[in-house]
Design brief:
Keywords: Membrane, Transmembrane, Transmembrane helix. The protein is an alpha+beta fold. The chain is built from 13 helices and 17 strands. The protein has one domain. It has a five-stranded mixed beta sheet. A five-stranded mixed beta sheet has the order 8-17-16-15-12, with no helix packed on it. Helix 2 runs antiparallel to helix 3, helix 4 packs across helix 9 and helix 7 packs antiparallel against helix 12.
């Protein structure tokens, strides 16, 4: 993403590394294989959703109480089936969202990798992670503005369809017996499957064109690995900032706030707050005439169909009197509109967490064990607390939304929990906004040119670890000032801690 300010405010002079000192970057073949397997599974899964949605039977325009997936009448709305326990009903819906999250996360990863290297071929790749919708590529059709917008629309449609495809309800029969029902909406399931197929096709096309042209250099998204790949492939040229020594007592030289590096990510915090506020306004008592909500009394109409009465003169029976096409598309439309804001919010929050993880990987240079370029991206995501929290929150939030929001009303309890989840994510985004690391290392936040400039020794193989620190004095000095060298080394004993009160340069 373009930014007028450079993360490391130095004067640059060009220099080159010795070829023998380069450490071969990781191609990420294991990650590539996992992504390919999940892509194939996504194709099969979304194709199944699309096909099955056309065979969910209906009876007289209402849901039937059957599990048979056989061709029904012309009106194909969906099915409903009974479960033994409420836990089983809720567990089925949660499992569905977990599967959807895994599939869409993998598709997003593939699309992000193809876009990253398309931007790199254009020599416009600044950061290791970028907002995909707002950074189209001009040389790749699968990563152009049209494909990116279509991707966002299909992602909204996929999540919106998933939110209304499965939902659970507990009703009380005439003999005061609780019955747990799971509804499957055919239109929502079909929209989820069709949009997922489109996402899979775009991801597969980006994969194929990137691999065929040799554009994709690595599937490992570690910032050091990406920077080294760009350097070795002559995408980024190193410039050593040794003409302008700086004093280590100036702590501001080592501090760069996260969102000053990625300005458009600031929108995530007010978005989270707005979403939590909107959801909280849906939580009311049954005496509030200005809200839709459930009452505790079931209604049995003359045909024996049982429904839930909604205040403000809106009942399920009223919805059934609407035209068939309105009945079929209303849940999907409602889900897409409601989920679009949360989907974009989660995407931006994932983006912030990715930037923070990039900086954490970079700061391993001053850790005891040093930094390695060959870490698996999945392992990085699992050991990152922020990434783990956001990853777990997304399917849970989508599931709570489906359990608490219907086109005919709102269930207060899941919404209370959902608002709590959104507030927690708001705090996470707020902390990420103000989070920075102090230390001996200038911040980069995934800025690839800065990483290439600051790393002067990529190691000579071995375990593939490098360290950052003081590399000794500069013999000739600098305009009468005692100046020391700082940089990286593949030998831990070759560097020591940066000394305060000293002037340092990179060579």
């Amino acid at each position: 993403m373009a930014d007028a300010r450079e993360p490391v405010p130095y004067v640059y002079s060009e220099c080159q590394d010795v070829e023998a000192q380069r450490l071969t970057y990781d191609k990420g073949r294991g990650t590539r294989m996992v992504a390919l397997i999940l892509l194939i599974i996504a194709f099969l899964l979304f194709a199944t959703f699309t096909g099955v949605s056309g065979f969910l039977p209906v009876h007289n325009g209402t849901l039937v109480w059957t599990t048979a997936l056989a061709p029904g009448s012309a009106l194909r709305l969906g099915v409903a089936f009974q479960t033994d326990t409420e836990f089983a009903a809720k567990g089925l819906s949660l499992a569905f969202f977990l599967v959807m999250w895994i599939m869409t996360s993998n598709l997003n990863f593939i699309h992000g990798v193809s876009l990253r290297w398309a931007k790199a071929e254009e020599h416009k790749l600044e950061y290791n992670h970028i907002l995909r919708v707002f950074n189209p590529s001009k040389i790749s059709i699968t990563n152009g503005i049209t494909a990116n917008v279509l991707w966002a629309i299909c992602l909204f449609l996929c999540y919106g369809g998933a939110a209304t495809a499965f939902y659970q309800e507990t009703i009380i029969t005439s003999d005061i017996t609780k019955v747990h029902i799971v509804y499957i909406d055919a239109v929502s399931l079909g929209a989820c499957g069709l949009s997922g197929l489109i996402l899979s096709i775009i991801a597969a096309a980006g994969w194929w064109t990137g691999e065929r042209s040799g554009r994709i250099k690595t599937w490992n998204s570690h910032p050091l690995n990406t920077a080294l790949a760009c350097k070795e492939e002559n995408i980024i040229t190193r410039f050593a900032p040794h003409d302008n020594p700086f004093h280590t007592s100036l702590r501001r030289d080592f501090k760069y706030k996260l969102l000053t590096r990625q300005p458009s990510a600031r929108d995530t915090i007010p978005t989270f707050v707005t979403l939590a506020f909107v959801l909280s306004k849906r939580i009311h008592t049954k005496h509030d005439d200005w809200a839709w909500h459930f009452t505790s009394t079931p209604i049995i109409d003359e045909s024996g169909y049982q429904s839930i009465q909604i205040t403000n003169r809106l009942t399920f029976s009223t919805i059934r009197n609407l035209p068939d096409w309105v009945q079929f598309w209303l849940p999907l439309l409602y889900g897409c509109v409601s989920q679009s804001l949360s989907t974009l919010t989660f995407h931006i929050n994932d983006f912030i967490v990715d930037i923070r993880r990039d900086e954490a990987c970079w700061h391993e240079l001053i850790s005891r064990r040093g930094a390695t370029l060959h870490k698996n991206p999945l392992k990085l995501a699992m050991i990152s607390k922020g990434a783990f929290a956001v990853s777990c929150s997304q399917p849970i939030a989508q599931w709570l939304f489906s359990a608490g929001v219907f086109p005919i009303g709102f269930n207060p309890l899941p919404l209370v929990v959902l608002v709590g989840v959104m507030l927690v994510l708001t705090v996470v985004a707020w902390l990420a906004d103000r989070w920075h690391r102090w230390g001996q290392l200038p911040a980069t936040y995934g800025h690839l040119q800065s990483i290439v400039d600051l790393v002067d020794d990529w190691g000579n193989g071995g375990k593939g670890r490098i360290w950052w620190g003081d590399k000794g004095p500069v013999p000739e000095g600098h305009d009468g000032i005692n100046v020391r060298r700082m940089g990286t080394s593949a030998q831990k004993g070759a560097v020591r801690e940066i000394q305060k009160g000293q002037f340092y340069v990179l060579m």
